[in-house]
Amino acid sequence: MEKKEFVKDIIFVVVGNLILAAGVSFFLVPNSILSGGVAGIAIAIEPVVHIHPNTMITILTVILFLVGAVFLGKGFMFKTALSSVIYPIFVSVLTNFADVIEITSDPILASIYGGVFVGVGLGIVFRTGASTGGMDIPPLIIHKYTHIPVHTLVLAVDALTVLLGMLIHGIEPALIGLISVWVSSVMVNKAMMFGLHEAQSIMIISEKHKEILEEISKQLDRGATILEGQGGYTNEKRPVLMVVIFRKQFPVLNRIVEHIDPNAFVIVHDVNEVQGEGFTYSET
Q: What is d(CA 92, CA 89) in angstroms, rounded to the nearest whole number?
């Protein structure tokens, strides 16, 4: 990894953990929101263990980091060490400000905005290929031995965390906590995809493919790949146009196809990232 890229990743990890800690300190902990992660567990078990959530967050973060180092190896340890150190520090520092500045006492608002901050923070850290430590670690360990998708395991762990809170705090706090979990999962994806070239891959099957291709080139300044297709029932060979466009260009393409061949068969796929001429560098 180049030095510039390494420094950039470090900055992203620090900023991501700061945003994550802000969500926990200003929204989740002050309003006792049952969310996922170590903050959710700390809040859930506070009435039982009588340990302040901030202290429990630090204890759980250290324990889970050590467990991850044992099961996931040195590579994991180096990537996650920074998060495991700075996250509890950020939470402790920001909690002092939260004690003075009350943003909201509405549990619904706290759950929504706490989920936004947590999701954005996690997404920024995940973009670097690093982990925030904490409750990211159990899913990673289970994935290593079972190969179940990590995002599925993360949702399962968060759901179990909220369930634990429901057993201690009741149903209504758990329902409010689920709002935070859902908002957080949405914002993780948004943060990870932010800045990428969202596009659509269009497959067009039409007898008038030449006319459609000409208009696509003329109106959208896009090329296309002509694939060879074969009807499953008729065994008749026919060309298939594959066009990749920016999402905002789809209405124009749709009008082109409808005008030339209303009977054309069109398949649309969402694409999160496109690299190449016309998308990531200028045409020459």
A: 5
Q: Which tokens go with 212? A: 């459609």
Q: What is the pTM of this model?
A: 0.69
Query: Is residue 119 within 8 Å of 185, Cβ to Cβ?
Result: yes
Spatial contact of 47 and 148, defined as CB atoms under 8 Å apart: no
Domains defined for the chain, CATH in brackets: 3-193 (no CATH), 199-271 (3.30.70.120)
Give 275's contacts (C-beta < 8 A, 6+ positions apart). Answer: 197
- pLDDT tens for residues 14-40? 999 999 999 999 999 899 888 878 888
Give yes or no for a contact between 110 and 104, defined as CB atoms under 8 angstroms apart.
Answer: yes
- Note the pLDDT tens digit of each residue in 132-169: 777 878 887 888 888 887 667 777 888 888 888 888 88
Q: Between vectors from CA 154 to CA 109 and to CA 103, what angle results, nearest 5°?
A: 20
Count of residues making up the chain = 284
The sheet carrying 199-205 orders its strands as 225-230, 237-246, 199-205, 265-271
Give the Cα separation of 247 and 61 in Å (integer). Answer: 41
Give per-residue pLDDT as tens, 265-280. 999 988 766 666 565 5
Structure tokens at 267: 């398949």
